[in-house]
């Protein structure tokens, strides 16, 4: 068995940004963990807070446009269906359409969704749903430019910021993009909220080492010109990986530099992950 995504096996995708074209018809996922993840998302939206969904006033129009796009896409896809004032998801759960736009978006799709608009000097995060963050907090990043959103990712301002800014500026409606982010974690917890001042290693619930991947898609909205950034998170126990993929993952992990090792939890976690993959 293996994980659904193995970007570490290809030098072109093992390191950021590792971006390629996205087939628009394959934008959203319905995979083996759909029902379980959607149940967790539903529970979060029963008592939402600003780290689950929030928006600035500038994010209202892009949010409405994203919802319209989502309803159109799911109707065309066929795995969702409209019944009166609700949409029935692939797991047979009905999502009422009279809830807030961000709640409907967050409960219809397995992906988290962030909305960014052009700003000076960079795109600004103005709205989003974030059920499964990887050690960050949505409310803390709202209203901030891309470089601040990625703080404290090592090397981002020096090596990636200019490339990412050009990519956002050049993104075309008809040509969405996709990349896969990855790391090895001592946890299968999907939702890990951490603020910048409280950055630390991920929690360890004692369930072994896991490959965490994020299938990240970038789409341009035609009316507001906002960029939609969606994130589908998948967690796979390393024991489920094939021998080839375990070896490839270990080789990629061994190539991390000091800054990335520190950012991902420190040398002890890095070495323990390498040992788990040996």
Outline of this structure?
With 278 residues, the protein is an alpha+beta fold.
- Note the total helix count: 10
Helix and strand content put the structural class at alpha+beta
Spatial strand arrangement across the major sheet: 1-8-9-10-6-7-2
How many DSSP-defined strands?
Answer: 10
Spell out the helices and strands N to C.
HEHEHEEEHEEHHHEEEHHH
Q: What gross morphology would you assign?
A: globular
Portion of residues in helices?
Answer: 25-40%
What is the C-alpha radius of gyration, as a whole number of Å? 18 Å
- Unreliable stretches: none
Number of domains: 1
Distance between the termini: 17 Å
Strand content: 15-25%
Mean pLDDT: 94
Task: Describe this entry's structure for a reader.
The chain has 278 residues and is of the alpha+beta class. The chain has one domain (7-277). The chain has helices at 11-14, 34-46, 60-77, 101-108, 138-141, 146-149, 156-170, 243-254, 258-263, 267-277, and strands at residues 20-21, 53-55, 81-83, 86-88, 94-96, 112-117, 124-129, 177-185, 210-220, 227-237. The strands form 2 sheets. A 7-stranded antiparallel sheet has the order 1-8-9-10-6-7-2. It has a 3-stranded antiparallel sheet with strand order 3-4-5, with helices on one face. A hairpin with a 6-residue loop joins β9 (210-220) and β10 (227-237). α3 runs parallel beside α4 and α8 (243-254) packs antiparallel against α10 (267-277). The longest helix has 18 residues, at 60-77. The protein is globular and about 55 Å long.
């Amino acid at each position: 068995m293996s994980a659904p995504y193995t970007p570490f096996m290809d030098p072109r995708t093992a390191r950021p940004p590792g971006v390629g074209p996205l087939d628009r018809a394959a934008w959203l996922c319905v995979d083996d963990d759909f029902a379980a993840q959607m149940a967790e998302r539903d529970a979060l939206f029963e008592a939402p807070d600003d780290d689950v969904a929030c928006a600035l006033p500038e994010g209202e129009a892009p949010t409405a446009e994203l919802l319209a796009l989502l309803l159109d896409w799911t109707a065309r896809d066929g795995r969702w269906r409209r019944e009166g004032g609700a949409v029935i998801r692939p797991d047979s759960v009905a999502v009422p359409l009279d809830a807030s736009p961000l709640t409907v978006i967050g409960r219809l799709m397995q992906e988290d969704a962030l909305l960014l608009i052009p700003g000076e000097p960079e795109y600004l995060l103005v709205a989003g749903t974030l059920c499964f963050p990887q050690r960050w907090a949505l409310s803390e990043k709202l209203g901030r430019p891309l470089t601040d959103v990625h703080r404290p990712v090592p090397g981002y301002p020096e090596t990636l910021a200019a490339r990412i800014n050009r990519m956002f500026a050049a993104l075309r409606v008809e040509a969405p993009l996709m990349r896969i982010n990855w790391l090895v974690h001592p946890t299968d917890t999907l939702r890990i909220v951490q603020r910048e001042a409280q950055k630390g290693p991920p929690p360890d619930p004692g369930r072994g080492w896991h490959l965490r991947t994020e299938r990240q898609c970038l789409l341009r909205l035609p009316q507001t010109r906002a960029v939609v950034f969606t994130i589908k998170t998948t967690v796979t126990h390393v024991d489920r990986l094939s021998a080839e993929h375990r070896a490839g993952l270990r080789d990629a992990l061994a190539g991390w530099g000091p800054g990335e090792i520190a950012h991902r939890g420190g040398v002890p976690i890095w070495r323990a992950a390498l040992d788990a993959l040996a």
